[in-house]
């Protein structure tokens, strides 16, 4: 397996090359599509290198793989080999003895500005290398290196794209419920490296990443109650209001090419869907009904939009062309359906479903078939897709909102640690 | 039908304020018997509007229709706003926490618009009012059961322009 180097990853100061060795066609595979697969027992000894850096990198890799539900990292205290050199063939018998099926070896080194890392993934039963990679990056990027290694391991074993080298923008919530202070915050997908993007003097909700992952669109309230969709460049801090609309704009989302924002405009109590071209600033009206039309989300090819509407009496999901026109209802189960989000793979639409006082997060195919509820209770809301289309984050409010991650099969349901209450997660694309 | 459960503490607090305001109002205008009820701030004051007239109306779940109780309150608001015509004001629409963030912004906007339209129908100039929706972002009651939800599904008329007497 090779990791192609995109122009963006070069811009981020990351270089990756495959680590050549006795790579063979190993049979070390977990098929995610098979029901009831067993998580793969994997041994991740501390990487060799500077101080405790190798141990910290190994811990981040193990945490990523554990949370994915695909791997079962083995407790380090069970290891027979405590110090594993990346330069010699592992003693596979000592890993077979503790029932490891996969083994990770590697090294991390830092000089003043750069960090060099390498790893090999071994198939313990055959004694062959399954994959290997080396990376050179900024010395402060040690967590990113760990996520890249975890992605390489996850991809090699599952055949699916990685998702660990990514970030999440969300709403940090502090203070009493009737006067919550809400700030935009940015974190790594595992909850590390939290930084705040707004000061909390304005109420902010529903941030969404652009496909380039440098910009976020969100809704903010001015102190007088006027609410509008904004853009924020998370690198420069530059902000602007999207468009000059005569009413409240809300529920924004980027088009897959990043050139447009689709959103709702409310006028005289009536919400319709509009797009704005970010370059020409031209706005286009896509729906024209007396219903509440909101939560628009593009298909990954940009040709269709799924949204929610109460045009039929209660909130249901509809799909229309990217330029508007007739819309086809796709949700027909029990309850109200809202916040649809099209998967980056295109195969599913995630949503929030409300039945009485219960809120579930679910997925269905874009034609409305194959509906599956992944979690249910009071109160789950607002799914967002991982870059590989196999995991979702959402928030669950049981006396204070917290962020959780689930997978599309419903096997995984883990908390994403945040410093305080958190809601409205939005997952970035892969960083490289 | 008006069923607004108010917590004992909130009630006590409101009564305490009303009593304090009543004392000062009575001292200054002992014989100005306001049609809006004595004992809640001076005539034409924002306090009188909030406590004697009632600054808010409530909605059924997932509805923006004005109940008969809501219409009665808004009629009193219209009468008061006609008499004290120098006030401008904002109608804020709110929703309870059941429902998604996005939907509740739109629902709150419908509720604010319903109150707005009723006041216009009673002769209040649209140029004096604006509407905003806070969706479910600004609850006044924070338990997670029906007693709180019914207080949060509301449209609140917030006076802004000061009266020039």
Descriptive terms for the model:
heterodimer, A: 432 residues, mainly beta, Neuraminidase, 2 domains, 10% helix, 45% strand, B: alpha+beta, 4 strands, globular
Written account of the structure:
The complex is a heterodimer of chains A (432) and B (165). Chain A has 432 residues and is mainly beta. Chain A starts with 6 loop residues before the first helix and ends in a 5-residue tail after the last strand. In chain A, helix 2 crosses helix 4 (142-158). Helix content of chain A is 10%, strand content 45%. Chain A folds into 2 domains: 7-158, 3-Layer(aba) Sandwich (Rossmann fold); 167-427, Neuraminidase, CATH 2.120.10.30. Chain A has helices at 7-11, 53-67, 92-96, 142-158; strands at residues 15-18, 40-43, 48-49, 71-73, 102-110, 114-123, 128-138, 167-174, 181-188, 195-196, 203-209, 215-221, 227-233, 239-241, 248-254, 260-267, 270-277, 283-285, 293-298, 304-309, 316-321, 324-329, 336-342, 349-355, 358-364, 372-377, 380-385, 391-397, 401-407, 413-416, 421-427. The model of chain A is unreliable at 1-12 (pLDDT under 50). Chain B has 5 helices and 4 strands. Chain B has a 4-stranded mixed beta sheet with strand order 1-4-2-3. The longest helix of chain B is centred in the first third of the chain and has 21 residues, at 8-28. Chain B starts with 7 loop residues before the first helix and ends in a 6-residue tail after the last strand. Classes of the chains: A mainly beta (432), B alpha+beta (165). The interface between A and B is large, with 41 and 30 residues.
């Amino acid at each position: 397996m090779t990791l192609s180097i995109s122009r963006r990853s070069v811009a981020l100061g990351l270089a990756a090359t495959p680590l050549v060795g006795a790579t063979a066609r190993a049979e070390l595979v977990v098929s995610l599509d098979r029901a009831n697969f067993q998580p793969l027992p994997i041994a991740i000894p501390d990487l060799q290198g500077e101080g405790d850096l190798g141990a910290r990198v190994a811990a981040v890799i193990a945490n990523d793989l554990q949370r994915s539900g695909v791997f079962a990292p083995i407790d380090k205290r069970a290891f027979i080999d405590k110090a594993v050199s990346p330069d010699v063939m592992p003693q596979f018998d000592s890993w077979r003895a503790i029932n490891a099926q996969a083994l990770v070896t590697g090294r991390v080194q830092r000089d003043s500005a750069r960090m060099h890392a390498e790893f090999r993934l071994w198939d313990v039963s055959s004694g062959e290398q399954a994959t290997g990679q080396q990376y050179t990056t900024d010395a402060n990027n040690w967590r990113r290196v760990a996520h890249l290694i975890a992605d390489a391991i996850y991809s090699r074993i599952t055949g699916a794209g990685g998702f660990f080298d990514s970030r999440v923008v969300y709403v940090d919530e502090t203070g009493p419920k009737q006067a919550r202070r809400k700030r935009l915050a940015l974190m790594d997908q595992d909850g590390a490296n939290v930084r705040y993007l707004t000061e909390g003097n304005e109420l902010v909700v529903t941030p969404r990443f652009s496909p380039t992952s440098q910009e976020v669109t969100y809704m903010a309230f001015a102190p007088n109650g006027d609410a509008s969709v904004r853009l924020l460049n998370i690198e420069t801090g530059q902000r602007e209001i999207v468009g000059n609309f005569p009413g409240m704009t809300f529920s924004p989302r980027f088009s897959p090419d990043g050139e447009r924002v689709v959103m709702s405009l409310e006028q005289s109590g009536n919400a319709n869907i509009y797009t704005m071209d970010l370059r020409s600033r031209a706005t286009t009206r896509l729906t024209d009904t007396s219903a509440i039309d909101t939560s628009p989300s593009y298909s990954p090819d940009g040709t269709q939009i799924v949204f929610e509407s109460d045009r039929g009496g209660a909130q249901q999901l509809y799909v229309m062309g990217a330029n508007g026109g007739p819309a086809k209802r796709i949700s027909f189960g029990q309850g109200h359906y809202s916040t649809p989000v099209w998967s980056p793979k295109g195969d599913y639409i995630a949503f929030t479903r409300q039945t009485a006082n219960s809120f579930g997060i679910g997925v269905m195919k874009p034609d409305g078939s194959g509906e599956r509820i992944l979690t249910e209770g009071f109160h789950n809301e607002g799914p967002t897709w991982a870059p590989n289309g196999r995991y979702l984050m959402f928030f669950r409010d049981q006396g204070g909102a917290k962020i959780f991650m689930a997978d599309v099969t419903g096997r995984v349901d883990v908390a994403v640690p945040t410093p305080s209450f958190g809601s409205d997660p939005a997952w970035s694309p892969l960083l490289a | 039908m008006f069923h607004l459960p108010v917590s004992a503490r909130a009630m006590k607090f409101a009564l305490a304020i009303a009593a304090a305001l009543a004392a000062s109002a009575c001292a200054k205008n002992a014989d100005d018997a306001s049609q809006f009820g004595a004992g809640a701030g001076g005539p034409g004051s924002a306090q009188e509007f909030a406590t004697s007239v009632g600054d808010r109306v409530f909605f059924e779940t997932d509805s923006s229709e004005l109940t008969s109780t809501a219409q009665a309150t808004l009629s009193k608001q219209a009468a008061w706003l006609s008499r004290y015509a120098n006030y401008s004001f904002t109608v804020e629409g709110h929703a309870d926490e059941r429902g998604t963030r996005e939907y509740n912004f739109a629902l709150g906007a419908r509720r604010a618009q319903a109150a707005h339209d009723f006041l216009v129908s009673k002769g209040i100039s649209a140029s004096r009012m604006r509407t905003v929706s806070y969706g479910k972002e600004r609850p006044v009651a924070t338990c997670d059961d029906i007693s709180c939800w019914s207080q949060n599904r509301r449209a609140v008329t917030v006076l802004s322009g000061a009266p020039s007497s």
